[in-house]
Design a protein that fits this description.
- By secondary structure, this protein is mainly alpha-helical.
- It is 64% helix and 7% strand.
- Helix 2 crosses helix 3.
Length: 87
């Protein structure tokens, strides 16, 4: 119920007061957008290298022979994204 959901949110805010400001702020949507862009970037870069990968939540499925390339691409996308956020 809505009342129970409100109670849970209040309990989480009380337990983690440093993050209480984020509830209902839209910050979660911003993080989801960053995550989606990172996923699309990984898929695009892997296609550019001749390999198709499938995304599953926060992971990827690729051929075993492409594991090292995928790991490298994921690291590249992470570092670039963190640089963009920091600047």
């Amino acid at each position: 119920s809505w009342e129970r959901a409100q109670q849970l949110v209040m309990a989480v805010k009380a337990r983690h007061p440093r993050f209480a400001f984020a509830w209902g702020s839209g910050f979660g949507r911003q993080l989801q957008a960053i995550d989606a862009r990172m996923c699309a970037d990984v898929q695009r870069l892997m296609r550019n290298r001749g390999s198709v990968v499938l995304s599953v939540h926060d992971s990827f499925i690729a051929r075993a022979t492409q594991a090292a390339t995928l790991e490298s691409v994921m690291q590249e996308v992470l570092e670039r994204t963190l640089d963009e956020i920091a600047n």
